[in-house]
Design a protein that fits this description.
Layout: H1 2-15, E1 20-21, H2 24-42, H3 58-65, E2 70-73, E3 80-82, E4 85-97, H4 101-108, H5 114-117, E5 122-131, E6 134-145, E7 147-162, E8 166-180, E9 188-189, E10 194-195, E11 201-211, E12 214-226, H6 233-259
């Protein structure tokens, strides 16, 4: 049954039967969600705000300090349904003992070598330009769950240092293009927003704090994908709903692993 289902899924993806356009109302709903989220996140950098999410619960910060990954969904359910799409909002944290904020940021900002530190999801990465704390970055990503999806992505990234051994950043996707036949002679990019809809937008919000003999690293990742289609939706749903959590968890684990080598 599993093999048969995989072949059905493969046939539908190759034929483009799931192709869907990113609609204006879908993007508008995502942008509203981002505005509300950023207003909430701005409270964390105020003097009275809790900078780190882990500090909101003593048990959470203790688990992270002991080496565990903390990860949670921001909503009651795994996704937020909007017209024509789904918003995924996950937050996670790790603690990396024995490192400094400077060393942590140096690794994160080494975009020319992200493919070395974040395998297998990052297939290629490149720093396009840098002006102070503002970066423009290219990455080729692989999303894999039942099927494999390759994406060419561009980001605008800004880092904002604070006192007290703290820094935060935001990374906004500016282009996400699905790659068909990646690595083959007939490789081609689908127009952004006119594809299978596995990832239309990805905004990431990072916080770093050096304390307790190491660095706490947190990331909240907010992404936009297509909705679940009818018919074979039972096949595509696990891909769309589980990848955002898995991707964030892997990114945080790989960041810690790269820093403690």
């Amino acid at each position: 049954m599993r093999l048969a289902a995989a072949w059905v899924l493969y046939g539908f993806c190759v034929s483009g039967a799931w192709a869907v356009d990113l609609k204006p109302e879908t993007l508008q709903a995502f942008e509203r969600y981002i505005r509300e989220s950023e207003a909430r996140l701005e409270q964390r950098v105020l003097p009275a705000g809790k900078f780190l999410w882990v500090d909101e619960e003593p048990r959470r910060v203790d688990r992270v300090r002991q080496g565990q990954l903390a990860i949670a969904n921001r909503g009651i359910q795994d996704t937020f349904a909007v017209p024509g799409g789904l918003i995924h909002d996950w937050i996670g944290a790790v603690f990396i003992p024995g490192v400094t904020l400077e060393k942590t940021l140096a690794l994160i900002q080494d975009y020319d070598h992200n493919q070395d530190n974040y395998k297998p999801e990052v297939l290629a990465s490149r720093l396009v330009s840098r002006h102070g704390n503002d970066f423009q970055v290219y990455m080729r990503l692989m999303k894999q769950n039942v099927i494999t999806v390759i994406l060419d992505t561009d980001y605008d990234v800004r880092y904002l240092p604070l006192d007290g051994g703290r820094c935060y950043s935001h990374a906004y996707s500016t282009r996400i293009a699905e790659v068909q036949n990646a690595g083959k002679r007939d490789e081609r990019l689908l127009p952004p927003g006119k594809d299978d809809g596995f990832l239309w937008r990805l905004y990431s919000y990072w916080r770093f704090q050096e304390r307790d003999g190491g660095v706490f690293v947190e990331c909240e990742a907010i992404s936009l994908t297509r909705g679940i289609p009818g018919g074979l939706g039972w096949l595509i749903e696990p891909i769309i709903t589980t990848l955002p959590r898995e991707s964030l968890a892997n990114t945080l684990r790989e960041t810690r692993a790269a820093l403690v080598k």
